[in-house]
Amino acid sequence: MLVKITGGIRIDVSTGATGATGATGPTGPALNIMAEIQGAGSQTIPANTSQFIDFTGNTKVGDGSILVNGTDIIVPETGTYMVCYAISGGMNSSSPTAGISVSVNLRQRNVSGTFNQVVLGSFIASNFVGSTTALTNDDGLTNCSLVCVADTGGGALNNIIRLQTSVDAVTGGATAWIVEGVQTSITVTKYSDDICSPY
């Protein structure tokens, strides 16, 4: 018996027996799909062209479920993934008047190519300029986006992710952007079993 005193008045308060423990809820999703993929070598992107970054010879860590085949990063199942990239390179000119305009995005597709689009929010662009020192500038871009992997029909998942870069303009003697593989990476982490979609 508990005793509660309120305003000088004694009130006896009794509590009943503890109720039964409820059922255990369902186990949450095992979101252990992850990879960090680092490139190798270098890749020259000439002016006014676009290329997918080739991850051949890559170094990667993770749970082993994400595959890499040249330009393709292949996730194993449907769901929502957080995909982040970092890409770095230098102009092929050390002139202080050199300049280059580059853009980068993630592209998502299925095996047949019937689904092929830029990942929402993944596009980023920048202008890089030369310096007064006799060094080729090394500049980089980073971004993260949600990637919604779903069945696009007949079991064909849109589970192929590519990192695309373009050299949109050059000036002052620069003619290309040289992407450094060891300074370029993609990180993939499964965020949810639920499939995100535009709303």
Automatic annotation (TrEMBL):
Q: Name the source's superkingdom.
A: Bacteria
Name of the molecule in the record: Collagen-like protein
Q: Which organism is it from?
A: Paenibacillus zeirhizosphaerae
Which lineage?
Bacteria, Bacillati, Bacillota, Bacilli, Bacillales
